[in-house]
Amino acid sequence: MSHNLLKGKKGIIFGALDEKSIAWITALKCHEEGAEIVLTNAPVAMRMGEINKLAEKINAPVIPCDVSNAEDVDNLITKAMEHFGGKFDFILHSIGMSLNVRKGKHYTEIDYGFNTKTMDISAMSLHRVLANCMKKDALNDWSSVIALTYIAAQRVFPDYNEMADAKSLLESVARSFGYHYGVKKHVRVNTISQSPTRTTAGSGVKGFDGFISYAEKMSPLGNASAEDCANYCVVMFSDMTKMVTMQNLFHDGGFSNTGVTQEIIDQMEK
User: Fold this and answer.
1) What CATH topology corresponds to 10-269?
2) Where exactly are the structural domains of the chain?
3) What is the DSSP secondary-structure string of 153-207?
4) Does pLDDT of 173 surpass 90?
5) If you average pLDDT over residues 4-19, what whole number do you get?
6) Dihedral over Cα of 20, 43, 39, 178: its sign
7) What global pTM score does this model have?
8) What 3-state class would DSSP assign to 40?
């Protein structure tokens, strides 16, 4: 059911790969709420995924963008403004990639060249996108930018590997750039720390099935689904949250503030 929360708004959504991805579901929800959207992903991800199917559903153009390439980012923002006929109102940064995880390298033995690439794509890409938007004055006053993160930025989850460091950097970029963009254009920048979610990318993390079950038992409300996260993104893109910025917003069913649950205690005592 639509509430027209994003009627007349326009935005770019990064990272829609397939129907399981949070970015994909968020694009659908934004469209339902009245938004006009430009979709983008890395060329290799576009070949692997089904983004054109989503584009057809929501009548959105797809503009390829390697976020580690400044020229690609510049082209994306320029073409998005041309499509929208001017400035736009929101951005979803749903991007993460770790070559060390893909190659099965343990955190204590990471390849530093791979690590640099991980940080660039998973974290500094947010800085690159925001800097380009600021340079072009691409975002309207009171626009909203959301980047997806995970609690491993604050706590140790061994198999999350170097992505924990990348998410820490991502959250720092959101805070720091959020200050500068807030002062200059009232643009708000936040991160959403989502529950472990059974997406194509998330399921590739070692031990994921066991951990998602643990998180479910450790969360008073249970794990937040991809659809729940998409709904939260819609609210954060809307004018209902105009004064929220530079925050890391936990969307995890209470996991982040729970020491232990009775269900876990009962399980340990068996």
Assistant:
1) Rossmann fold (3.40.50)
2) 10-269
3) GTS--GGGTTHHHHHHHHHHHHHHHHHHHHHHH--EEEEEEEPP---TTGGGSTT
4) yes
5) 97
6) positive
7) 0.96
8) strand
